[in-house]
Amino acid sequence: MHWLFGDQLGPHFLTPGEGGPGPETPLLMIEARSVFRRRRFHRAKAHLVLSAMRHRAAELGDRITYVRADTYRQGLERAARGRPVGVHHPTSHAAVRLVRTLPGVTMGPARGFLVPMADFAVWADGHGGRRLRQEDFYRWVRRGHDLLMDGEQPVAGRWNLDHDNREPPPREATSLQVGRPYRPREDDIDEEVRHDLDRWERDGDVSFVGRDGPRLFPATRAEARRALRRFVEHRLAAFGPYEDAMLAADPTMSHSLLSSTLNLGLLDPAECVERAERAWREGLAPLNSVEGFVRQIAGWREYVWQVYWYFGEDYRRSNALRHSASLPDWWSGLDADAVRANCLRTVLAQVRDTGWTHHIPRLMVLGSHALQRGWDPAAVTDWFHRCFVDGYDWVMLPNVVGMSQYADGGRMTTKPYTSGGAYVNRMSDLCGPCVYRPGDRTGEHACPYTAGYWAFLDRHRELLACNQRVARPVRQLDRLADLPEVREQEHARGDAPP
Q1: Which long-range contacts (CB under 8 A, 24 or more apart) does 20-23 make?
Q2: What single DSSP character describes residue 410?
Q3: Which one, 53, 75, 87, 426, has least CB within 10 Å?
């Protein structure tokens, strides 16, 4: 038998070779209830994963044995009955540990990524193994996969078009004038999933956070292909300039919304970047938008996957800033209505209602607040894992520990990603109606991000003074006449909703 995990759902997981199953090999999928008992996941995420698994089982028909069990181990024992079982390399350290303890199970190489782990290890070892910059890796992947290349050089002579992709939202606009994102239609399988989740909650067997409205993200290969086509044909052209911008009434902007689809294995990253490059070569999208999209997938997504395995399990315990505060209940419960700060209330409500926001609200609103408050990076990682439809351990561990919370002390990124309210004000329309003012550090209207930024630098000034990218604002601390007031104010604010 060949065992498919719930994030190995595309056709590229069934092609023969390198540990893949033969065309007649019986298949197995296990729906383990214990996964939902261990963590309090977002309800929309639970719905999406179960819907995708059950849809894939329905497509595969008699070839697959679909087992609903308490644990993976129980499901495997029931279905395999001593027969040898193959499986592709799972996507988490915990799943790999499990597979290695199961008798008769053989693990093959990972699929669904552009670079084999062994190749990355050679590249990383050649760069000293510690400061592995994403930009260097991205260029290496571009060369190796001939992505946006003109011979040995990048097309148009530039590797990185980030400078063209940092525009604030258009003035006075409440939304980008782009085609709407693809939205799937629910079916009987979705109804069955929702019924089961309702029953499990009523029985007290599991508990969720967030809301489960109509499913917003693809659960089948056909839906995934339609979503990719819709993005490339109607949204990609406007993606680049505004990929870092935020609008309160337009949370999706021109983003692809393909992260959960890729992470379920419904799309292969190669087909996504090749489709985008073809759009540029055919004159359907500008280079800065296409390069920005390719960078997200062949650069950042691939990089995060690789460093998750290269850094190993000890990376989870990184805590260079020694942050240890627990997450407050209003945050853990996605209680956006308790928050007054408009940017945080808006973004937290988006997570509550959909299980998704794009990368800038994650990094510069949610992650920045957690960093400024000094919350335990392991708890923040777990929260992102549970509360986002595209959240998996391999995704969130490097993104949160390495980038968002700077808990690895600069092993992945060159500076802490946090800012005052001025950044949010420049890149969004979220500050205008807020009760706080981005320019105020103290007083009734003091922006919690502005005050929090200076309080964060003050707490860690000794460590950050040696960092070239933040040394200048650290030196400015001594010129802030109201710094004692900021310290006292932010200490008193604590973890109460801002």
Answers
A1: 20/88, 20/108, 20/111, 21/86
A2: S
A3: 426
pLDDT of residue 19: 84
Put the strands of the sheet holding 105-108 in their side by side order: 64-69, 27-32, 2-3, 85-88, 105-108
Angle between helices 134-145 and 302-311 (to 10 degrees): 120
Structure tokens at 23: 């065309």
* Three-class DSSP category at 256: coil
Query: Which tokens go with 342?
Result: 């408009």
Under-50 pLDDT residues of the chain: none
Q: Which burial class, exposed, middle or buried, applies to 74 when counting CB atoms under 10 A from its CB (0-12, 13-18, 19+)?
A: middle
Looking at residue 378, its pLDDT comes to 98
Token pair for 367: 């992650």
CB 230 within 8 A of CB 181: yes
- Are 449 and 343 spatial neighbours (Cβ–Cβ below 8 Å)? yes
- The DSSP secondary structure of 117-167, one letter per residue, reads HHHHHHHHHHTTSS---HHHHHHHHHHHHT-SEETTEEGGG-S--GGGS-P
What would the pLDDT profile of 417-476 be if each residue is shown by its tens digit? 999 999 999 999 999 999 999 999 999 999 999 999 999 999 999 999 999 899 999 999
pLDDT at 470: 92
DSSP letters, 46-68, are HHHHHHHHHHHHHHHGGGEEEEE
